[in-house]
UniProtKB/TrEMBL annotation:
<protein>
    <submittedName>
        <fullName>Uncharacterized protein</fullName>
    </submittedName>
</protein>
Amino acid sequence: MTSNLGRVSVNVVLPYTGPKYNIRQIADWTLAQGLTLTSDTRLFPEKFSKFLVAPTLDVGIELLPHHKIYWTQDKHAEGGQRLMFEGTMDKTVQYYAKSMNFT
């Protein structure tokens, strides 16, 4: 919190985000107006259950006999190819990625 002659700024530190998003001002407080939210971020955000800014994570998955692994063309991937993985572990990681907001 910072104060400037009767005005207090309320900031939150957002973990697992780049420097651009790390510290965000979320509210102001003045004696005349009380607490005023200044951001779309909640006053007490769920900082540890869901990523607020979607990071890209590398995830290691164990290859089992019923899983399928193959290369596919991808112009956005390094070298023009991406290693793909299909199976129950892939579905599990995709489920977590959707619920926790990561790619």
